[in-house]
Amino acid sequence: MVTTRADPPARLLDLTRLVSRAGRPFTGIDRVEYAYLRELSRTGPLFGLVRSSLGYLLLDQRGCAELKRRIDAADWPEPDLLARLRRLDPGRAGAERALRSVALARCLPSGLGRVLHRHLPAGTHYLNTGHTNVTERSIAALRALPESRIAVLLHDTLPLDFPEHQAPGIPERFSGMLTRIGRHADLVICNSQQTEHDLRRHLPDSPAASVVAHLGIDLPEPTQPPQGPWQGRPYFVALGTIEPRKNHALLLDIWERDPPDAELLICGSRGWNNAEVFARLDAGIPRVHELPGLSDGQVAALLKGSAGLLFPSLAEGYGLPPIEAAALGVPVLASNLSVLREVLGDIPVYAPVTERYLWTQSIKTMAEDRRAGRGEAPGAAEAFAPPGWEAHFKTVLTLI
To answer: Global pTM?
Structure first.
């Protein structure tokens, strides 16, 4: 008898994070949720779930396509009067307004279970990739669907491992979310072996299955980079939110105490718990430039013209910036993290963050290499191929 592959199940993708951050530059987690939206839109029946400021929105395939279109076009309507009165973030308010007009159903939080039962088929598989909306209410509503399955993508456990680096309340909320994942998820998708190890360290008795699937990399097309005093000079890029874990303080120490003959471009928005670093930036450090709010294309253009990416992070669940830089053929100087070695091998230059002298000398060498036209990343001749989404989804979608 000839067997054929069964049709894919209906999938319900949680889109809460993308909608809540509409109009802002993508973070790494935003990129992942968008990649799932793009892939699932073309691989089978798709619904979308959004926890909005007023309750829940349920999207069908058409609604999911409309959200993707608006993201791609950066096309968000103005907030309505209610949103302005409630002082919601304009981007989020505009996105919710746009989606309300195309939603398959809307409800208050108390009505979520009834809406899902009315509109979703039995055997629907729920996927959450954004660390949002993993609540007792949403889980109970999903579990009331016959033969439903729940999959959650875990990016890291850093709020528990480094609570001192988090905004107030984040470790407690994350702990609750992780506990719910361990109790209720059928599958935990881990972006790295390190994340899977951390999951089992925190939840040794969880019955949830887990799988490691490296995240794909979408390299943006470089656009016109921003202009500034770094033009015509060697410069380095530090990419990521300015938060304690990213360890910008080490780079500021270098540029203040033994500065290389190069510029430092800090590309990222200001985060939390980092008043001392913010004060140093506000006071001004020669040859250090803060560039928040750049587009992906502008960042790619800056990386392509740089002497290298500097990544002194204290901890990562995956580490997208050095992977993206390596894929662009840009030299990388990074902290000695096992997760970076897992994906990048020996391509970066690794240095312990406790060795400021080693970092300083490596940066000076990279700047001189750039001046001498030797700015190609180690191993670039082998054309580093970053992890791809095709392999990621081949692993994940056979399981959920």
So the answer is: 0.90
